[in-house]
Amino acid sequence: MTALTLSTAGAATLRADALVVGVAKGVKGPVLAPGSEAVDKAFDGKLAAVLATLGATGAEGELTKLPAASGLKAPVVVAVGLGPVPDKEDAYDAEALRRAAGTAARALSGSKKAGFALPAGSVEDAAAVAEGALLGSYAFTAYQGGENKLAPKDSGPKQPLAEVALLGGKPRDKAYKAAVERALALVEEINRARDLINTPPNDLYPESFAAVATAAGKEHGVKVQVLDEKALVKGGFGGILGVGQGSANGPRLVKLAYTHPKAEKTLAFVGKGITYDSGGISLKPAGHNETMKCDMSGAAAVFAAVVTAARLGLKVNVTGWLALAENMPSGNATRPGDVLRMYSGKTVEVLNTDAEGRLVLGDALTRASEEKPDAIVDVATLTGAMVLALGNRTFGIMANDDAFRTSIHEIAEEVGEASWPMPLPADLRKGMDSPTADIANMGERMGGGLVAGLFLKEFVGEGIAWAHLDIAGPAFHEGAPYGYTPKGGTGSAVRTLVRLAERTADGDLG
Ligand code: BES
Ligand code: MN
Ligand code: ZN
């Protein structure tokens, strides 16, 4: 991955391919952000005026490249927009810094080294710039650069920016060093989640996902247990088996356990891991299945969060449950009308095999509940209805505990992930009444995201605080890249889960 250093050099002396500065939108034109002083000095204090001449305004997402003034050791200056000048001169919003750093990093793909002279006066600012620059330095190129035997060799895909040098921080300060270490571990794991999401489903299926988890667990001190089909049958995991039985690639339930000897609390994270969602016998129409390799984004997020917690050595136990299956139609597939017996003992009438996420999650939630964690958070690309409700960039939060839902919402906000609290209205439960089984896997169409949440709730153990994050919107980005968000897998919810673990470790939550 991209390297990150806290530079001891100043912006004027750093040898790099480019220097990045921040520019905000002021009432009278672009205003340079703190951190850019040495670069501005090389322009005789006229950098803001030069940028204005070039048409820069400081708007968010804006990027201006210009040749560096003499005296600088880098040939190019990249000015990125931060949006409106904050009320307090140096109080730039962390997410604005993250996005600006990401925009710059993306524009610098193919370069070796860039100095980031964005605000770094506080550890929080430096951490945001580090995260944004690293998240923006991502490219999924594993399947590109194939050589055409009959054509001349081309240069292949552009590689991400190779080295980020953070300027203006305190390289010898413990807190700065820790922030850099944290950003590196966090983003490496987010990028691993992105890779898993982007990997095509002919290569990423339950068994191969479990193998990746096993290897990463070994490397980072996380205990990994894999239940294969035989073990799932023995254990009575009817939901996971019912979803997976139509595929030649059998399902798995993976348990990841990170423990700290002095931990006082245990968190359980549960991820939906449908490595491909064709819809099954209730087959999705063309136009709705091209991106369904992303249906394991919840499991990827959980995996990334548990490994990050381990790498940071957080004083909390974190257990991850990856409910992995491929949802395919075949002669062995579950039919609409079949009844499954879930791990909890409850029976479910499957009315629509495309409502498969709640079936694998139901089993995993019950299994997670057996270990009596202090709280459970599940993450899932669960419903199209949530995308209709909140759009492509915001995930919904449902919970059986209002205070816990509020905490998760605040944490997401703090780490720069857009989310919104959603209710679990009890009246929607009766739509899932089944004449044949204890519950049906479908209910009313209206409020479909909440119906799915109500279904999951029935598989959570009594008295355990539980939240459900429906990331169907933000998990996979189909539009043009922006800020630090690339096309494809985004790593949605990892930052929220990691901060929840950190807060729990610090005793900041109940
Ligand atoms: N994986 C889909 C949900 C989804 C939709 C994820 C769009 C990402 C983007 C899920 O399994 C699904 O098919 N849900 C159905 C449920 C319905 C049949 C009750 C849906 O939302 O249409
Ligand atoms: Mn589905
Ligand atoms: Zn699905």
Name a few traits of the molecule:
Aminopeptidase; Leucine Aminopeptidase, subunit E, domain 1; 7-stranded mixed sheet; 8-stranded mixed sheet; alpha/beta; single chain; binds manganese (II) ion; 510 residues; 21% strand
- Assign the CATH superfamily of the largest domain: Zn peptidases
Query: Total domains, how many?
Result: 2
Q: Averaged pLDDT, please?
A: 97
Q: How is the biggest beta sheet arranged?
A: 8 strands, mixed
Bound molecule kinds, no repeats: ligand BES, manganese (II) ion, zinc ion
Shape verdict: elongated
Name the strands of the widest sheet in spatial order: 8-9-11-10-14-18-15-16
The name CATH uses for the topology of the largest domain is: Aminopeptidase
Overview of the structural elements:
Helices cover 33% and strands 21% of the residues. With 510 residues, the protein is α/β, with parallel strands linked by helices. The protein has two domains: 3-172, 3-Layer(aba) Sandwich (Leucine Aminopeptidase, subunit E, domain 1), CATH 3.40.220.10; 195-505, Zn peptidases (Aminopeptidase, 3-Layer(aba) Sandwich). Strands 8-9-11-10-14-18-15-16 form an eight-stranded mixed β-sheet, with helices on both faces. Strands 1, 2, 3, 4, 5, 6 and 7 form a seven-stranded mixed β-sheet that branches. Helix 9 links the parallel strand 10 (266-277) and strand 11. The radius of gyration is 24 Å and the shape is elongated. Ligand BES binds next to helix 11.
